[in-house]
Design a protein that fits this description.
about 80 residues, mainly alpha, 3 helices
């Protein structure tokens, strides 16, 4: 079983250059965002807004794929 004391002992071994990253991870774990709320409200509403703003924007100028073209035949690399 992992205890707070074990975690604290391992933190003392972390190199100074990683302390900021470690601190951010710990802060994120102390008060994690409610993922259900973020997923259902944030990205969903932004996605719907994006679709409403851009839907049909290429109707008058549809994307077309051009001809494949011819490529030169080169020697085999061995």
């Amino acid at each position: 079983m992992i205890t707070r004391e074990l975690v604290k002992a391992e933190i003392d071994k972390v190199q100074d250059k990683y302390l900021e990253i470690l601190y951010r991870i710990i802060k994120a774990l102390v008060s994690p965002p409610d993922l259900a709320t973020v997923t259902s409200q944030g990205s969903n509403s932004n996605w719907h807004q994006f679709i409403e703003e851009t839907y049909g924007c290429l109707a008058d100028d549809p994307i077309e794929r051009g001809e494949q073209g011819q490529y030169e035949v080169r020697e085999k690399i061995e």
